Amino acid sequence: MGEVIQFTWLETPLGWMAIAFSESGLVGSTLPRPSQGEAVSQILALWPQASPAEEAIQPVKEHLLRYFHGERVEFNFPLDLRMGTPFQRKVWEEVRKIPWGQTRTYKEIAQEIGRPGAARAVGQALARNPLPIFIPCHRVIGATGDLVGFGGGIELKRKLLALEGVTLT
């Protein structure tokens, strides 16, 4: 990447998050973790050259805290998605359009990006989502309405959807 990568962290009601960013935008975030150290370690595993910037990107932190307190927020911050393939970026950009409190299936995302038979590939792209919450992959569900395929675990996915007023069985 060549650019300077920095990171910061915050404690949310569901755990600690770390967020990495470049001059071009956000490059990575963790899902809530039990400890600050675990969140920071996860970011540093991906960007070992990143340096801490505790007070940086305050508006991003404020938006996240509002989100985790159940307030409807729009995450319209610039994202730096250069690390993704063209297909992954297309999936991530489509998922980013899913409104607060709504869900889509993997099949629907595949159809929206013009690849109707690529539901499984959509799932694989979301498994590599570098910016969970900002790219709300928790809003993508199975074809039968099941909560499937979430790196933070199904219970966290359920909690995030509940924050947005979505209840699934």
Task: Describe the protein.
With 169 residues, the chain is of the alpha/beta class. The chain has 2 domains: 63 residues; 78 residues, Orthogonal Bundle (Arc Repressor Mutant, subunit A). The protein is built from 6 helices and 6 strands; from the N terminus they run βββαβααβααβα. Strands 3-2-1-4 form a 4-stranded mixed beta sheet. A two-stranded parallel ribbon has the order 5-6. Helix 4 packs across helix 5. The chain is globular. The protein starts with 5 loop residues before the first strand and ends in a 6-residue tail after the last helix.
Keywords:
alpha/beta, single chain, Arc Repressor Mutant, subunit A, 2 domains, 6 helices, 35% helix, 169 residues
How would a crystallographer describe the biggest sheet?
A: 4 strands, mixed
Q: What shape does the CA trace take?
A: globular
Nearest-angstrom radius of gyration? 15 Å
* Spatial order of the strands forming the largest sheet: 3-2-1-4
Category from helices, strands and their pairing? alpha/beta
Number of strands: 6
Mean pLDDT: 93
CATH topology type of the largest domain: Arc Repressor Mutant, subunit A
Low-confidence stretches: none
Q: What is the N-to-C order of secondary-structure elements (H for helix, E for strand)?
A: EEEHEHHEHHEH
State the distance separating the first and last CA atoms: 42 Å
Quaternary: single chain
Fraction in beta strands: 15-25%
Number of helices: 6
